[in-house]
Design goal:
Blueprint lengths: L3 H6 L10 E3 L4 E4 L4 E6 L2 E2 L7 E2 L3
Length: 56
C-alpha cells in the first residue's frame, strides 16, 4: 500500500496531471493521458514507455 504522502506528490510524468490510485490493480491512473503506471513492491514505475493504455 502506497503512503498518502507519496500519493499526494506524485504526478503523471507525461502531462504532470493528477493520478488516481487503484489499489486492487496496484496501478496509478492518469485519466488525461489514459495511462496506467504499475506499482511493484510498493514502488511506482513512473516510466511512460512502461505504462499501459487504459480505456475510461
Amino acid at each position: 500500500m502506497l503512503k498518502r504522502e507519496l500519493l499526494d506528490i506524485l504526478v503523471c510524468p507525461q502531462c504532470k496531471g493528477a493520478l488516481e490510485y487503484d489499489s486492487e490493480k496496484a496501478e496509478l491512473l492518469c485519466h488525461v493521458c489514459k495511462l496506467a503506471y504499475q506499482v511493484k513492491d510498493d514502488i511506482p514505475v513512473m516510466l511512460v514507455e512502461e505504462a499501459r493504455t487504459i480505456d475510461d
